[in-house]
Amino acid sequence: MSLRYGTRIILRRRGLYAPAYVNTSQSPLLARSWQRWSSVAASPASERVLFPGALNSKFTNALEFTRPSATEAIPTYRVMDQYGVVIDEHSGVDTTDEEALKLYSHMVTLSIMDLIMFEAQRQGRLSFYMVSAGEEGITVGSASALNPSDVVFAQYRETGVFIQRGFTLDQFMNQLFSNCKDGGKGRNMPVHYGSRQLNIHTISSTLATQIPHSAGAAYALKLQNLQRPDLPPRISCCYFGEGAASEGDFHGALNIAATRACPVIFVCRNNGFAISTPTADQYRGDGIASRGAGYGIQTIRVDGNDIFAVRKAIKEARRRALEDGGKPILVEAMAYRVGHHSTSDDSYAYRQKVEVEDWKRRDNPITRLRKWLEDRGLWDENKEKELRGKARKEILIAFDKAEKEKKPALRHAFTDVWETLTEEQKAHMNELRSVIERYPEEYNTDEYEGGLDGLKIEDSK
Amino acid sequence: MAVKPPVMRALSRSLSLRLRQAPRPSSPCSSKQLRTYSNEPTKARLNGSVDYSSTPLLNHISQSCLANPELPQHVRQSKTKRINLFQAINEAMRHALQTDERVLVFGEDVQFGGVFRCTMGLAQDFGNERVFNTPLSEQGLVGFAIGAASEGMRPIAEIQFADYVFPAFDQLINECAKVRYRAGDTGMDCGGVVVRMPSGGVGHGALYHSQSPEALFTHVPGLRVVIPRSPVQAKGLLLAAIASNDPVIFMEPKILYRAAVEQVPIGSYTLPLDRAEILKPGSDLTIVSYGTPLYTCQAAIEAAEKDFRCSVELIDLRTIYPWDRATVLESVEKTGRAIVVHESMMNAGVGAEIAATIQEQAFLRLSAPVKRVAGWATHTGLVYEKFIIPDVTRVYDAIKQSLDY
């Protein structure tokens, strides 16, 4: 009886799958397992092993272990040197002057917003902040090389992506102050931005969880593009730090992205530190880039302080990600985290101030692009002053406006957990309301839109 | 065509599937030689009397199946066929794949039909772009599902055993459950996610093929937790889960995959995701349970009603969270006594929540403390399972104690 059952399964499989194609995502993995059963020992003359797990492996008589130190570090791609001089004039810069000026102004705006908001947090006017200092080139540059319909998953130090995509200063400030105009309804900590309109998924604090999301999203985009050829070809792009790459999610994501052939670019911002942990305590391989090949993923390491190099690398990565029905690409962008990890961190507790000052002076993405612009006669001290003054003014106007707004209505503490409010939630809202009504002195509901009435269930979804 | 004898792996798989069947005392399959490890005590009157082929909890004839008032009118006039629980799951996914091109089915070993045969034939019929194997990484595949759902797909991810869902806990709790809430008006959600997982005792699953981790999920706002007890429910609830815009944890009692066989409507239909079902009305005592233990409860009730001349109401919770408080409270208001039965460990289990709610809201109606019959505070060691998971005797005794209080 049971024999017949097993036979049936095998017969059905044999008829359906030709065991010819293996090791591609489109091939049914079944073919592989079938091959495993039917595989035979290699003939004495064969120079290749027939193990299904590594089809192209040759036999060797030498007992040699592969040592990571035997290979040189993966080179870092750059277009211009730290003095803003383009190294290979031939391949050169792919940016128009106007575009370069725009990228520069976005990076400067970001750095000024960082300074103001970091200070505002120090004054206790918002609860938390994280700067992007030293990594403006990676975020602004990569975002400028993507299509606006490409889907972005960020970690938290990618404010430049939001600026480049068109997130407005008002939107930044509303989120940072968690007011009633915050798209996130005041639920997230500051810097956890998001926008469906701009195709950037809401940031969550949990590290690396977004990496498998980006693989799944890329797979969805791939299928949707197959089902609807009229849509523009889209990819997803995922950012994370070198520390986050130690999480299991990184491994699960890169592996599934490769086996399912997902059109996704993984951008690792390797800035040397995960809070206080230096990379020497984070990994012992050749950075993150060296791992790409292990997953069968095309990989490049790029100078993150060189916005032109980042742009060119991401453009090419995007082109490749869409090739052959889709595939993942890994980009490791090297940088130095110039700022503290966050407003809750004093980085001089674990690194020398002089080291940071040195990096600030010696090389950073903003000054490098500025040098290039100046060499080209596109920029000077006056323009710099004007840009900085204007950006500062605009940020402060948005700051003031956002700070004055009320907090979102209290019912939003409960809405959006499920699609609609549950009976249990309605009971909890009523109970909370009743407590506040009986102890009005204990709560400040005036700060919230609609005050206590904001808890009325009729208004809620 | 020459028929090749099955190779060892296929043979052992088909053998193991056979052995996974629940004990069916009347079946010739349960030969003593094969199952020496699970002999039942020869004089047992209560334990070992659960008979899936005759239990009133399953629809053995078409008419009783179609009499279900929860089924839509056109389904009630349709035909039924006799299938087991894994086939019902398969039918639900087949229907979803057929009617909605956003639906994806994936997990470990899903493509060849799944280790429990739930995805049988789906890859062949819908292509391996939509039904596929993933690498062996629970956090990876659940994260993948969340990402796909957040871009508009409706992924049905399978965790091979509920015991192995824990690597994906972060993804389920910090991500899946919170995506809509944290996104607010910015417009993201991953409500299309359904995570299926076989759960519960199977007789010989030991530590890592027996767990029922539902209580760990009922402590998380934003998730729906569903456990069906029968093929009719499995199909209707799974289709409702797939249609739901909230993420759903769908736990399938694996012991019932082949054991629970009943008449199931051929067409598609959904069952509500927030309603308990009164399986048997009664006036003296309420038993609330879900999944496999319902059969244990049914057998215990049968014996107890005969022995104590009482009338017990049996409620299937179906959706463990959010759960149907109204139906349970209404029942306890009427009977004044309640027992909650589940396989997972007692402390902070689903029974704790139900008992606390009853105590809070039906205090004056209670004639006895709410009793919990649940797994003991231990792990499911291989040879101890029948002493750990609630059996007919323990439920029978709880009824007795509650009535005698």
UniProtKB/TrEMBL annotation, chain A:
The keyword ATP-binding does not apply. Residues 106-409 form the Dehydrogenase E1 component domain. It is an enzyme of class 1 (oxidoreductase). GO terms for biological process: branched-chain amino acid catabolic process. It catalyses: N(6)-[(R)-lipoyl]-L-lysyl-[protein] + 3-methyl-2-oxobutanoate + H(+) = N(6)-[(R)-S(8)-2-methylpropanoyldihydrolipoyl]-L-lysyl-[protein] + CO2. InterPro entries: Alpha-ketoacid_DH_E1_comp, DH_E1, THDP-binding. SUPFAM superfamilies: Thiamin diphosphate-binding fold (THDP-binding) (SSF52518). Keywords: Metal-binding, Mitochondrion, Oxidoreductase, Potassium, Thiamine pyrophosphate, Transit peptide. GO terms for cellular component: mitochondrial matrix. It holds the Pfam family E1_dh. It is found in: Mitochondrion matrix. GO terms for molecular function: branched-chain 2-oxo acid dehydrogenase activity; metal ion binding. Its cofactor is thiamine diphosphate. Signal peptide: none annotated. It comes from the Eukaryota. Belongs to the BCKDHA family. This is 2-oxoisovalerate dehydrogenase subunit alpha. It comes from Glonium stellatum.
From TrEMBL, chain B:
Residues 83-259 form the Transketolase-like pyrimidine-binding domain. Its EC number is 1.2.4.4. The keyword Membrane does not apply. Its cofactor is thiamine diphosphate. Gene3D superfamilies: 3.40.50.920, 3.40.50.970. Residues 18-42 are annotated as: Disordered. It catalyses: N(6)-[(R)-lipoyl]-L-lysyl-[protein] + 3-methyl-2-oxobutanoate + H(+) = N(6)-[(R)-S(8)-2-methylpropanoyldihydrolipoyl]-L-lysyl-[protein] + CO2. The keyword Oxidoreductase applies. It holds the Pfam family Transket_pyr. Keywords: Oxidoreductase. GO terms for biological process: branched-chain amino acid catabolic process; generation of precursor metabolites and energy; response to nutrient. Residues 18-28 have a biased composition (Low complexity). GO terms for molecular function: branched-chain 2-oxo acid dehydrogenase activity. Residues 29-41 have a biased composition (Polar residues). PANTHER family: 2-OXOISOVALERATE DEHYDROGENASE SUBUNIT BETA, MITOCHONDRIAL, 2-OXOISOVALERATE DEHYDROGENASE SUBUNIT BETA-RELATED. This is 3-methyl-2-oxobutanoate dehydrogenase (2-methylpropanoyl-transferring).
